[in-house]
Amino acid sequence: LNKPEWYLTQVLMWIGNHAKFLDDKIQPILDKAGSSVNAGLEFSRALVMLILEKLAVDIPCLLYDDALFCHLVDEVLLFERELYSVHGYLSSFPSCMHILSEESCFQRWLTVEKKFALQKMDSMLSSEAAWISQYKDITDVDEMKVPDCAETFMTLLLVITDRYKNLPTASRKLQFLGLQKELVDDFRIRLTQVMKEETRASLGFRYCAILNAVNYIATVLADWADNV
């Protein structure tokens, strides 16, 4: 259960290793017979169906072990990315994202995603470098004077989007968007709490860093507004 990458990688290897044989030897036979079947894609589809069967058995066994469940999700997302980008798998075919979208699995995914995001926010705001810009010594890069915590937070949101963007239904994507909105509001509250501690020094370093953070986050969210 702690090594889903073993069978996921094995399937990717089988797909890659058989591609030339299927294209050179099997596809011409299908073409000659007037069939519209793509040998390579059908081979991939059959192997993915085996993975779906395997996941359906494994997931209930690790649903409440955060470490194992998160590892499985991470490996499945990496597998999906390679399957589509390297092997040309079709979005209309069955995929692992359908298994991750099933109610019990999906709700668990949302829960652990939120848990680890909040832990990340705790660590980024308690870091000694939280209010310092990574690029403070490079003036042409650092026009907005973005503190490290704000940049890390927006990267966190971007990573979450990247993880859920291939979910098969809009309703599931919207649930993840709801999580992101919760995280933005949580971050806003945390910034407000820090700001209240700094009101006596409103021209101080940290107070200005908070204003820069808010400006940066608002600007990036506005840029993302075009992303459906």
Overview of the structural elements:
One of its GO terms (cellular component) is Dsl1/NZR complex. Pfam families: RINT1_TIP1. With 228 residues, the chain is an all-alpha fold. The chain folds into two domains: 4-101, no CATH class; 108-227, no CATH class. 73% of the residues lie in helices and 0% in strands. It starts with a helix and ends with a helix.
Entry summary:
With 228 residues, the chain is mainly alpha-helical.
Q: Number of helical runs?
A: 8
Compute the gyration radius: what is it? 23 Å
Q: What amount of the residues lies in strands?
A: under 5%
| Estimated helix fraction | over 70%
Span of the ends, CA to CA: 36 Å
Extract low-pLDDT stretches: none
Secondary-structure element order, N to C: HHHHHHHH
Counting helices, strands and paired strands, the structural category is mainly alpha
Number of domains: 2
The whole-number mean of residue pLDDT values reads 91
Report the sheet with the most strands, covering strand number, pairing sense and barrel closure.
none
Give the beta-strand count: 0
What does the overall shape look like?
A: elongated
Task: Give the helices and strands, then pairings.
Blueprint: H1 4-32, H2 39-62, H3 66-85, H4 96-100, H5 103-126, H6 148-164, H7 170-197, H8 205-224
